[in-house]
Amino acid sequence: MSHTIRNKPLPEALIALKTNSTLTTLDLGRNSIGDNEAQALAEALKSNLILTTLELGRNSIGDNGAQALAEALKANSILATLELWGNSIGDKGVQALSMALKTNSTLTTLDLWSNSIGNDGAQALSEALKTNSTLATLNLDRNLITSKGALMLAETLKTNSTLNTLDLQNNSIGFEGALALILVCKTNPNLISLKLMENSIRNNTVLLLSEAFHTNSTLSILELRDNSIGDNGAHALAEALKTSSILTTLYLGRNSIGDDGTQALAEALKTNSILTTLDLGRNSIRDNGAQALAKALKENSTLVTLNLDRNLISSRGAQALAKALKTRLTMTTLNLRHNSIGFKGALALILVCKTNPNLISLKFMENSIRNNTVSLLSKAFQTNSTLSILDLHDNSIGDNRARALAEALKSNTTLTALDLRNNSIGENGAQALAKALMTNTTFLATLSLQNNSIGDNGTQALAEALKTNSTLTALDLQNNSIGDNGALVLAEALKSNTTLAALSLRNNSIEDSGALALAEALRTNSTLATLNLEWNLISSKGALVLAKALKTNSILTTLDLQNNSIGDNGAQALAEALKTNSILTALDLQNNSIGDAGAQALSEALKTNSTLTTLYLEDNSIGDNGAKALSKALKTNTTLTTLSLRNNLIGDNGAQALAKALKTNSILTTLDLHNNSIGDQGGQALAKALKTNSTLTTLYLGRNSIEDNGAQALAEALKTNSTLTTLDLHDSAIGSDGAQALAEALKTNTTLTTLDLHDNSVGDVGAEALAEALKINSTLTTLDLHESSVESDGAQALAKALKTNSTLTTLDLGGNSIEDNGAQALAETLEFNSTLTTLNLWSNSIGDAGALALSEALNSNSSLSALDLGSNSIRDCGALALSEALKTNSTLTTLDLGGNSIKDIGARAISEALKTNSTLTTLDLQNDSIEDDGNSIGDGGALVLAKALKTNSTLTTLNLQNNSIGDNGGQALAEALKTNSTLTTLNLQNNSIGDNGGQALAEALKTNSTLTTLNLCNNSIWFKGALAFYETSKTNSTLVTVGFQDNLFRQEMALTLSEAYKTNSILTTLDLRNNSIEDDGAQALSKALENNSTLTAIYMQSNSIGSRGGQSLAVAIKANTNLTNLCLQNNPIGDIGARAISEALKTNSTLTTLDLQNTSIKDDGAQALAETLKINPSLTTLDLWCNSIGSIGAQALAEALKTNTTLTNLYLQNNSIGDNGALALSEALKTNVVLTNLDLWGNSIGDNGALALAEALKTNSTLITLDLQRNSIGFNGAHALFEALKINSTLAILDLWHNAIRNNEALALSEAFEANSSSHFVYNFSTL
């Protein structure tokens, strides 16, 4: 008899090991076990004679713990499986385990996935495998092994006769390592599973692998995802499949395979009788490839799983596959997500569901499926008895079709997962689904309704269903306009529900009342493990009640409160809970106005808490004191692996404290200090810590002031550090000296894979040094040098290095000055290099000569997938050359040629290429130049591009912004859209399209079923065009974003459009900026808004809307429950309009951003808005820039700020509030705990106002930006503000530009500030 123990406290587990005589499996994964605990377990293992499986994954075991376990393995004679994945074990720990393997004779499985094992560890394991005769499975996925380590393992496999599974995914073994392992397959008779995903394997390696198959008789699983084998590699593997009698599983996802390679594989499937799983996701397979596979399926009788996710298959390919499935009854899983199968393809597959008795998983999300298709699918469900997973997200289903699906769910007995994200489902659809959940009580486990419009009423229905439903484990309701009422009913349901484990309520409008209800539920609920409340309206009060619940709750492991307003008080309450809570592992408190006090409280909790592994504190106001407190906690804490402090106010002192902690801490793997105020001293301190720290893998220091001294210190550390894989130093004031130092380090460092140096002053000298390093380095995969002052010489040096480097996959040189010479050198390299997949060369003064050279390279290169040549000087000649290359190139998916000098001739050449190219998905031809020599594609160019779109089946995004396309071009593109089934985004902003072009495009959209985004801003569309789009909106079910800014819309056109938007259930964003819709147009649109359930953002600035229009919009705001962003700037709505909108906002709970800039509002309007702010639960940004608000209005707003708990941004620039208004706002700042940005630019504030503001800053702990430009502040006021900063620890930006400060006074202020300030912040002033 045997049994298993899981998730028991360590003392209980140790007792069980010593006394229990039946315990065979002990699972202590995710239990915060460190070296000390591992040593205790190891002692118990030495004498235990029962345990066969020990699971220690995702803990904090380092080398010391591994060494102790190794000693136990020498004595233990029963353990067969040891799982140590996701720990912090390095080479020393693995060397000890290897020594144990030499004598151990029972262990068969050793899992070391996601540790920090390098070549030394691989060498030790290789030596052990020469004598070990029991180990069958070795998992080394996600470590730091290069070709050197792979070569040693391969050599061992020549003689080892027991290992049958070796996982080396996500290392850096490269060509040599892969080749060695492949050659072993020829002779090794035992290896059945070899996983080499993400190891930069290319065509030539695969050819050799294929040859090895002819003699190998054991390998059954081959994992080659995320390499670049292309069609040639697929051909080679296909030949091997024809004779292979052992391979059952082949993963070829993301390998640049097109129709040619797929056809070869399909031909092999006709005779192959072994393969059961084929993964071809994320390639470039079109209809011809799909049809070939369909033909093969009719003859093949073994394949059960086929993954074609994210390819370029349209309805024709889907129909062919569906036809095959009618007779091919052994296939169980077909994945066609992210293709363009449309209505016909979906319909064909759906009809198969009625008759095929084996299909259990069918995925076709983001395939432009329409309402009638969903109805048919629903009917198919009623008879289908196998399908278990259905993914329909992003398909514009709406309430009616949701009801049809709900009916099917009532009788369906197989579906376990249903994804309905982004489908315009409202409360009616939710209510229907809820009824289905009440009757479907045995199967459905996962339901995603993210990004719909179900509201409180729909939520209430779902909550009722949860009370009786006993199968649902995960429910996603994020971004659904749910308020406190919805949260209350869900909380009530959670008290009795016993199955739900994950609930997402992200991005709704839940306030403290809702949080209170949920907290009450957490006290009794026994299943909920994950609760996401990110982007709601919870303040410290809500955090207090949630914290109280956490003290007794023993189930919740993840709590996300990101982007609320809990402040220091809320953080302190949660910290108290963490002292006793023993289950929470992840806590997200980003952007919550937490300062040093909150950080200090959390630090105290971390000293005793033994479960939390992830803590996000980014975008708060934590300074050096908070960082010091956290550093003290890190010295003793034994569980935290990720700490994010980005975008805070930490300086050198804080960084030095954290560095000191890192010297002894052996748990933390990720530290994010991006965008603080750390200088070179802080950088040097962190560098010193890296010399001894052996666990940190990721360090973000971008946007600090590290400078050359700090970079040199970090470089010195990298020479000995063997764990860091990612180092971000972008925008850190590093010059060529710092870059040279880092380059020297790269010559010996064997772990770093990502180095970000963009926005520094690296220059040619630094680039040349980095190039020399790349010739030797074999681990770096990403190097970012954009905007780093690199010129031609630096680019040439890097190009030379890439001829021999075999690991770098991404090189970003955008925003430099490499010119044609640099581009030509890189092009020459691309002809030989087979690893680089992404090359960014935007804004580098490259002309036709450079483009010509790059086009030549594309003819032979087989790895590059993304090339950015935007904002250069390429003309038609260069475009012609690149077009020729596109005709034969089969890997490039993204080409950016925006902002060059391409005219119609170049566009014609590119169009010809698009007719035959089968891989390009994104093409950018916009003109971003203000000069006359930018891209200028006219009707002629648009005509030929349109012609190409009729036959092209891969392009999804086409950007033609800022060209010279008129009606003829618009009509041609419209004609193409009638038959094209792949394009999803078309940008025609700022052309010359009028009504004729607009009408044609509208007509095309009646039948087009793929386009989701159409940008027609700044054209010349008039009434007829608007009327045409009105007619289209009645039937089109895919377009979600349409832009009409800067056209010629008038009142009557707005009236027409508004009628359409009353019933349209798709559109989410409407841009009508800079037209002339006036009051009548606004009134008509308001009527539409009262009923519309999808629009979330409306931009109506500069439309001559007056007070009557403002009043109409106010009525709509009261009724509408979806709108989050309303822009009315530059419309004269006045106080009357402002009062009406204010009244509406008292009940509205969804609007977060209101822009009333330059709208003729005076004190009366400001007072009305202030009254609203006292009770409104959602508004976070209020822009009142350039109105006529005086001190009375400012005083009213200030009074509101004393109690308001949501507003974070208040813009009062260019009003007339004066000193009295500033005094009132100062009083408010003393108690307000949420406002982070206050703009008082140009308000006649003098010294008295500045003195008051300074006094407020001494106690305020949330304000980050204070803009006092163009006032009348003199020396006394400025001095008071600077004195306040000695106490204030949160203000990051103070702008005093253009006040009344004189030269000598400015000098004195600067000296005083530099001498006395303890923290870094930005200040600015000019002098008289």
Description:
The protein is an alpha/beta fold and 1328 residues long. It has a 48-stranded parallel sheet, with helices on one face. The longest helix has 14 residues, at 174-187. The relative contact order is 0.03. Mean pLDDT is 86; it is low at 365-371 and 1315-1322.
SSE layout:
Layout: E1 3-6, H1 10-19, E2 23-27, H2 35-47, E3 53-55, H3 63-75, E4 81-83, H4 91-103, E5 109-111, H5 119-131, E6 137-139, H6 147-157, E7 165-167, H7 174-187, E8 193-195, H8 203-213, E9 221-223, H9 230-243, E10 249-251, H10 259-271, E11 277-279, H11 287-299, E12 305-307, H12 315-327, E13 333-335, H13 342-355, E14 361-363, H14 371-383, E15 389-391, H15 398-411, E16 417-419, H16 427-439, E17 446-448, H17 455-468, E18 474-476, H18 484-496, E19 502-504, H19 512-524, E20 530-532, H20 540-550, E21 558-560, H21 567-580, E22 586-588, H22 596-608, E23 614-616, H23 624-636, E24 642-644, H24 652-664, E25 670-672, H25 680-692, E26 698-700, H26 707-718, E27 726-728, H27 736-748, E28 754-756, H28 763-776, E29 782-784, H29 792-802, E30 810-812, H30 819-830, E31 838-840, H31 848-860, E32 866-868, H32 876-888, E33 894-896, H33 904-916, E34 922-924, H34 939-951, E35 957-959, H35 967-977, E36 985-987, H36 995-1005, E37 1013-1015, H37 1023-1033, E38 1041-1043, H38 1051-1063, E39 1069-1071, H39 1078-1091, E40 1097-1099, H40 1107-1119, ...
